[in-house]
Amino acid sequence: MKEILRYKNCFVCGEKNIGGLKAKFFFDGENAFTDVVATDNFEGYNNIYHGGVIASLLDEVMIKVLLAQEIIAVTAEMTIKYKRPVQIGTKLRFTGSLINQKGKLYYTEGELRDDDNVLYASATGKYIKANDTFKAQLMKSID
Length: 143
Prior knowledge:
By secondary structure, the chain is an alpha+beta fold. The chain has one domain (2-139): Roll (Thiol Ester Dehydrase, Chain A), CATH 3.10.129. It is 17% helix and 38% strand. It is built from two helices and seven strands. It has a seven-stranded antiparallel beta sheet with strand order 1-2-3-5-6-7-4, with helices on one face. The protein is globular and about 45 Å long. The two termini are 19 Å apart.
């Protein structure tokens, strides 16, 4: 298992982003994942983890499965299905998988589950591999 590359100022994974989530992502050879606790500083409604934060974490875990395989890409499209609200204080696992590839387009899936394996949200994503010029720009972000 290895930790996946990150950008120090990223809202989701950056250690130096004082307002960010500071999530650490890992790759087990097949899937990317991160474990977080739903904290009240990212609350939407009272005692409910913000859906936009969930979307950000799902996007990140799906692109991290590509980064872990040295594929530099950017989000083209993402669809999320929210199944139930996440209560503040819940321990969560976000998992991302690479499903398919067609040319420069990568298809991914993501899930959000708790310690009891209850599904809170699922997502699909399409990511476009960066061309060499854009890849060089993006790589300046990687720590």
